[in-house]
Amino acid sequence: MFAGREVGTLRSMFTTPSALVGVVVLATVVVCAIFADVISPVDPAQQHLLYRLSPPGTVSEDGVTFVLGTDGLGRDVLSGIIHGSRVSLIVAVTAVGLGMLIGVALGLVSGYSGGWLDTVIMRAVDVTIVLPFMLMALVLRLALGPGLGSIVIALGISGWATHARLVRGEVLSLRNKEYVLASVANGAPHGFIMLRRILPHVLASAIVLASLQVGVTIVAEASLTFLGLGVPPEIPSWGQMLANGRDYMTRAWWVTTFSGLAIVLTVLALNLIGDWLRDYRDPRLER
User: Is residue 1 exposed (0-12), middle (13-18) or buried (19+ Cβ within 10 Å)?
Assistant: First the structure.
């Protein structure tokens, strides 16, 4: 049984058209990522050289229908998009989770402790935010070397500062609340106060920010892969498909169009859900 708040949340989601569209699109992408091996018509790495750059709807002699056409090596575009959703979501969610973990931890310590430690952490936040996100991710990616792990670390470290600044601001308003002062008066350890008295109240805002950052991270991962510094070529990804199709824009528009459309729709869905979460949690918009 759902509690009243959960029922209210679901009702709000299903009565908000933009949020509902975002949930449907994101759910479709998640299903494709989980069941890619089952849904995919063919192996995304399988080459059909006789059907290179075939337009959407082409049927091979073996009876394989290339619903969205093929790329320069005869690989099925639809299968590549389905398998690419798995890579994009894994990299983006893991990287945002890493950035959220670092940012929330430092934001808690900064806002609660104050003093010189707060100053040091906030200056690091200022320096990180001033630097362009993509430039920092690119530099870290070059420093860490190839591999999916290095991409996740580079994107995660590049996005921690926004979480830290958000959490610190909320901690500053929470540390003088009665229940926090009561815990201090009772001699509770500082770690207990931060984790049990303050953290639960700032997690919701951090999750809303994370939902918005996942879309940004998907675009960043695709951009790095497009530049040849992201996902290895043997792993199907949306950024790799964009890079492979850039030389055939006039001859085979479908290679870049459909992979780019997958990125746009996924990021749009995440932004719609993030906007709804932000508005839903805003007490000024309650009716």
Answer: exposed
**What is the Rg, in whole angstroms, of the alpha carbon atoms belonging to the chain?**
23
Residue 97 CB burial class (10 angstroms; 0-12, 13-18, ≥19) = middle
- First-to-last CA distance in the chain? 25
Checking if the pLDDT of 264 tops 60, the result is yes
Digit-coded pLDDT (tens) for 213-240: 888 888 888 888 887 777 777 788 888 8
How far apart are the C-alpha atoms of 150 and 223, rounded to whole Å?
15
Burial 119-155 (b: 16+ CB within 10 A, else e): eebbeebeebeeeebbebbbebbeeeeeebebbbbbb
Q: Considering the entire predicted model, what is its pTM?
A: 0.82
Domains identified in the chain and CATH numbers: 2-281 (1.10.3720.10)
Q: How far apart are CA 197 and CA 180, in angstroms?
A: 6
Tokens describing residue 29: 């992408």
